[in-house]
Amino acid sequence: MSRSLILQEPTISRGRLFGFAAIVFFSFLLFYLVNAATIPSRFSVDDHLNYAATLALAEQHQLPIIRIDTLEALAPRIQFSNVGATRSLRPPLTYIISAGLYASTESLVKQRAFRVRLGSVLLGALVIGLVFGSAYLLCQHVGLALAAAVVIGLSPRFVILASTNNDDIGAIFSVAALLFASLLVTRSNACVSALFAFAIACGLTLQSKYTAWLCLPWFLFYIAPIVWRQRHKLIRWIPALIMSAIVAGAWWPIWNMYHYGWSDPSGLDNAAAVQMYLTDGVANQRGYWSRGVGLVDLLSGHQSFFGTSLASMVGYLAWIDVSPVAAVYWFYGGVLITAIVFCLYRILFSWDRLASIALGILFTLVGFFVHHNLLRDVQPDGRYLLPALLPMVIILISRMRGTSRSKSWLASLFITLGVGLFSLNYVRVWLHQGVFW
């Protein structure tokens, strides 16, 4: 059996572990709530599109059926960008949660721009809770698990995504849920309850942004060997597992096939047709390729494509014309590079299957990201790569060896650096803007 599948019994009671996880969740929930209340509205060019998609769900209480033949009737309710795109055709996980919280808090909170962000706030805090749980399952050390939560939860770009209305946070949440559920499956030797958790995570993924879809096969590959060994006792649970996945979110591809055709479970073909119709056929001519720039040019450093993308994955404050302090880029860049090298080491010398999954997710998302920029749209924005950061950071921090005392020192170092660097950003933005963020 692979070393990555052998997980020790918890070193603290289950009650205390849930207590620690609850503290982590509610601490970050409060932190993101404060950010959501103070970040100015329409801080990015896409903010109004996300806002409109959430309001459409909150007011209509149903997903819109957007086809070329329904555009005229939907025009007053659906907002399109200048390139014919609308968030209402995207996977709806974040928007459904945001719309539900928006409507249910109307009597408590009057500020609409804040209420529309509550879904992202909740998902962001859940991500950090799942990161804490996943790291603890791997290392059985509360300090290191907390360090992983702090490093991810206080990265500037993640803070922005967890404090504003967007669909990227839904994809990150789904990947975090897949990671946690897959670790439960391997730790429990594929017990039924863990498989139900994984089925629910799969369903959530299928109504999340497509970057999460790209990660799903890797987690299926990760749990496949242990599930196969237990197949005889699990086969009778297959219908219930499939139904759980459908209820959790796999209904969305079925909904797309019903309304847009059996060959379009993702809805992408219909979205492309609508976009081409609204832009007179020029919607797909905005990538680097249409400008005469190819893959070799990007690899050669054209417009600092990869540098800009990685920098924006760590921090994105350009909307207020101020960048994070340089130490933030050095820290997170160092963590990412070290994690990649560490995963390669684990694969070569220990055949750590989880490390191979983490690298597979990273390379898959990078490949998709480059392909999208070449053929579809020039967006050197590293937020699409953030789902890959979760398993990389968790593996790096959780696999550290040493005595309990040395692990505590390492955890303290990561936590101090994470909090300290974020505090420097706070001071920088406060001096520049006079307000937090």
From TrEMBL:
Primary location recorded for the protein, binned into one broad class: membrane
InterPro entries according to UniProt: LipidA_mod_glycosyltrf_83, RgtA/B/C-like
GO MF annotations in UniProt: pentosyltransferase activity
Domain of life per record: Bacteria
Domain Glycosyltransferase RgtA/B/C/D-like: 107-246
Pfam families according to UniProt: PMT_2
Cellular component terms per the entry's GO annotation: plasma membrane
Compartments where located: Cell membrane
Residue spans crossing the bilayer: 17-34, 118-138, 144-162, 169-198, 210-228, 235-255, 327-347, 354-372, 409-431
Keywords tagged on the record: Cell membrane, Glycosyltransferase, Membrane, Transferase, Transmembrane, Transmembrane helix
Record membrane topology: Multi-pass membrane protein
Protein name (database record): Glycosyltransferase RgtA/B/C/D-like domain-containing protein
